């Protein structure tokens, strides 16, 4: 049976896109306290079902599919630029396809402005109505106001007019950065991308016995199953090892591992893989915030997804991508050497290489050394770094990783880092090996 919180989320999902939502109204419609309604609305905001805007309120927006995540809604634009809505509030749920900077003659400006666009412009009042008539929203920079005719037209056409105190360049930079960040998010694999959904998941109930386990195992040949209670809340996990030698009438409740490690739909695949290797488990139940089973992922699913992700082209560059781009690899039969140039983006406030960029460099250099052993993927477990001298901006350094010890699950790599043929750093890193 669904909780009040879940019922409110489900109710919000049924509301038409563009509807305004209030705590008081939700509490009244669902016969719950305002505190419960408020927490559910905040959860809906985290799930991108609604967007809250100062002086406007909370509105229902369309939940984006991953392939469209880089398209921002006008409601999101308002929050990004700290704007206020002057008109056309009912169109805030719509998404923009592109933004146009109005820094040209009116006729030339209109050639680039069409339905779904956002025209970024100052106090050029003659452009406001023209853009709205073309099906575009308007963002006024410099804190300027729109005239009453433009506001009325915006309300009529359900196209927002937004005002921001920032200048045009700053606003364009902020929106561009938001789109760029969305692109990076789009590339990160989450559990929701690979999960075996609840309708396809085999599971047992805590009231079942070893007989039901054996019957399910003969049909699916899976090595383990999540265990749920009457409300489908995950209470344990049971594997073939747990039932070996047990009587068929023995209760699953007595044999299962209680309080299993779980993940949510928004957990990254990399995090799930790390936990599975670290804890030595092959199956992770996927639950919601209240512990209700939503599906499962296996170690095989996770490793396959991570290997596939490494082959995909990148669109938005993270710090890790910038570091990788500066690495030049030199591999011979015995040694691996990585040459690296410190760019200004990778420095701290003192002009030396930042700790984050340097640790990424070590991890990637270690991964290159491990490739020669053909042992697959790895994650860092422990890292110790000793700096003899700071590595300054625009210096070219050489990283020499050397494998000291390797077992089935772990490998220790020693690093020596040179600048101008002088040893500037030593490091020791322990990696966990991600084996199938």
Automatic annotation (TrEMBL):
Keyword Cytoplasm: no
Domain of life where this protein originates: Bacteria
Signal peptide: none
SUPFAM superfamilies for the chain: CBS-domain pair, HprK N-terminal domain-like, Thioesterase/thiol ester dehydrase-isomerase, Winged helix' DNA-binding domain
Keywords: CBS domain
Keyword Ubl conjugation carried by entry: no
InterPro entries: CBS_dom, CBS_dom_sf, Diverse_CBS-Domain, DRTGG, HotDog_dom_sf, Ser_kin/Pase_Hpr-like_N_sf, Thioestr_dom, WH-like_DNA-bd_sf
Protein name listed in UniProt: CBS domain-containing protein
Classification of source organism: Bacteria, Bacillati, Bacillota, Bacilli, Bacillales
């Amino acid at each position: 049976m669904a909780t009040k919180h879940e019922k409110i989320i489900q109710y919000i999902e049924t509301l038409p896109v563009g509807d305004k939502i209030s705590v008081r109204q939700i509490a009244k419609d669902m016969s719950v306290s305002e505190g419960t309604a408020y927490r559910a609305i905040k959860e809906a905001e985290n799930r991108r079902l609604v967007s809250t805007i100062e002086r406007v309120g909370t509105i229902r927006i369309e939940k984006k599919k991953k392939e469209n995540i880089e398209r921002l809604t006008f409601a999101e634009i308002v929050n990004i630029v700290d704007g206020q809505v002057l008109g056309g509030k009912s169109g805030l749920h719509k998404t923009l396809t592109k933004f146009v900077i109005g820094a040209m003659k009116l006729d030339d400006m209109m050639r680039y402005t069409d339905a779904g666009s956002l025209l970024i412009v100052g106090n050029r009042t003659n452009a406001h109505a023209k853009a709205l008539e073309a099906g575009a929203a308007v963002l006024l920079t410099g804190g300027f106001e729109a005239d009453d005719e433009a506001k009325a037209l915006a309300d009529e056409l359900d196209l927002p007019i937004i005002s921001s105190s920032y200048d045009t360049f700053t606003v364009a930079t902020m929106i561009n950065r938001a789109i760029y960040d969305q692109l990076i998010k789009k590339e990160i694999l989450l559990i929701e991308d690979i999960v075996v959904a609840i309708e396809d998941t085999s599971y047992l109930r805590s009231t079942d016995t070893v007989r039901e386990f054996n019957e399910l195992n003969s049909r699916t040949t899976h090595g383990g199953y999540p265990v749920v209670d009457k409300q489908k809340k995950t209470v344990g996990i049971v594997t073939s090892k747990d039932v070996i030698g047990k009587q068929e009438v023995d209760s699953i409740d007595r044999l299962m591992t209680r309080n299993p490690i779980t993940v949510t739909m928004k957990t990254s695949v990399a995090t799930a893989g790390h936990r599975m290797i670290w804890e030595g488990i092959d199956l992770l139940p996927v639950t919601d915030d209240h512990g209700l089973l939503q599906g499962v992922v296996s170690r095989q699913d996770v490793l396959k997804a991570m290997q596939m992700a490494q082959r995909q082209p990148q669109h938005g560059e993270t710090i890790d991508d910038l570091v990788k781009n500066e690495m030049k690899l030199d591999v011979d039969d015995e040694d691996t050497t990585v040459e690296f140039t410190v760019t200004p983006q990778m420095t701290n406030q003192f002009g030396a290489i930042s700790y984050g960029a340097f640790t990424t460099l070590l991890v990637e250099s270690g991964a290159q050394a491990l490739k020669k052993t053909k042992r697959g993927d790895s994650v860092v477990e422990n890292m110790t770094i000793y700096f003899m001298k700071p590595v300054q901006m625009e210096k070219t350094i050489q990283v020499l990783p050397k494998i000291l010890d390797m077992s089935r699950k772990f490998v220790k790599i020693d690093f020596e880092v040179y600048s101008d043929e002088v040893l500037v750093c030593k490091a020791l890193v322990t990696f966990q090996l991600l084996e199938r």
